[in-house]
């Protein structure tokens, strides 16, 4: 897979972190937009977007998503990928609401799981409702896969017409309650893929760097950012999301995986023909 282009996604804020844990965490619309611009300058093509309210709490407010999206677009060109997961426990309608803004991409988690001490609910009803709106609005889903069972359910949804035949996968590894972040698990997952499908790895905490290195070597794509990991190295907090992106850009260069432009990412993901809608 040497020389195949690499897409970097940055997840700058997430729904769980606080400034007490990560002092550099961007929270306001202006801070998130600046973090996105810096990440894109460092090599990211996709911004995986969560937003926060004025008190710093996770939000699915259409108004806030709209404001942050506009501010990002005023600063840089990138693929903005909305999170439909929200925070654990977000009701379905709140998870659906931001899709009225027609983002290019949105996440779609493919099953219910224990998420640490909580339950992250993604019933068939929830998956179908989210997927149906994405198809109606021509929003490309990124299927969030936390364990093997979620991956093996994908073809059932494709066969039933709930999911399109072309999709993008994100293997989220290292979540307590999901698959461990190991190379053997990553190989197990990717061995079950059709070669026409694209995939990304997002690994939590100390597993982020080794799993991104494996994904780059295997021909996959990668996600980094404060949502998944706040450390640059053991015991040293990252200064910014862009610092994490820049490291992957350097590593990709050493492994001869050219980092794509935003336009190239749209082409790889099949978004180029729909971006003007």
Keywords:
277 residues; alpha/beta; TIM Barrel; eight-stranded parallel barrel; two-stranded antiparallel ribbon; 9 helices; 14 strands
Topology overview:
Layout: E1 8-10, H1 29-42, E2 46-49, E3 51-52, E4 58-59, H2 62-75, E5 79-82, H3 92-96, E6 105-109, E7 113-115, E8 118-120, H4 124-136, E9 140-145, H5 148-159, E10 168-173, H6 183-190, E11 198-203, H7 208-218, E12 221-224, E13 231-233, E14 236-237, H8 241-254, H9 262-269
Parallel strand pairs: 1-2, 1-12, 2-5, 5-6, 6-9, 9-10, 10-11, 11-12
Antiparallel strand pairs: 3-4, 7-8, 13-14
Helix pairs in contact: 1-2, 1-8
Describe the structure.
It is a single chain. This protein has 277 residues and is α/β, with parallel strands linked by helices. It has one domain: TIM Barrel. The protein contains 9 helices and 14 strands. Strands 1-2-5-6-9-10-11-12 form an 8-stranded parallel β-barrel, surrounded by 7 helices. Strands 3-4 form a two-stranded antiparallel ribbon. Strand 1, helix 1 and strand 2 form a beta-alpha-beta unit. Helix 1 packs across helix 2 and helix 1 packs parallel to helix 8.
């Amino acid at each position: 897979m040497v020389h195949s282009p690499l897409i970097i996604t940055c997840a700058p804020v997430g729904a769980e972190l606080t400034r007490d844990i990560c002092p550099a965490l961007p929270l306001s619309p202006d801070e998130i937009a600046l973090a996105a611009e810096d990440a894109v300058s460092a090599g990211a093509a996709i911004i995986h977007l969560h937003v926060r309210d004025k008190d710093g709490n996770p939000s699915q407010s259409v108004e806030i998503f709209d404001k942050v999206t506009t501010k990002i677009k005023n600063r840089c060109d990138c693929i903005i990928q909305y999170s439909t997961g929200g925070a654990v426990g977000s009701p379905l309608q709140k998870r659906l609401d931001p899709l009225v803004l027609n983002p290019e991409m949105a996440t779609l988690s493919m099953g219910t799981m224990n998420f640490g001490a909580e339950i992250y609910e993604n019933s068939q009803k929830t998956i179908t409702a989210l997927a149906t709106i994405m198809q109606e609005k021509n929003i490309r889903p990124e299927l969030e896969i936390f364990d093997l069972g979620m991956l093996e359910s994908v073809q059932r949804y494709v066969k039933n017409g709930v999911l399109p035949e072309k999709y993008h996968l994100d293997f989220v590894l290292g979540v307590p309650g999901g698959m461990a972040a190991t190379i053997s698990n990553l190989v197990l997952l990717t061995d079950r893929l059709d070669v026409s499908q694209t995939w990304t790895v997002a690994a939590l905490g100390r597993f982020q760097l080794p799993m991104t290195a494996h994904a780059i070597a295997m021909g996959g794509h990668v996600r980094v950012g404060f949502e998944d990991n706040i450390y640059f190295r053991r015991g040293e907090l990252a200064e910014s999301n862009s610092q994490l992106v820049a490291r992957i850009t350097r590593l990709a260069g050493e492994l001869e995986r050219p980092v794509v432009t935003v336009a190239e990412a749209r082409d790889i993901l099949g978004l180029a023909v729909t971006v003007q809608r």
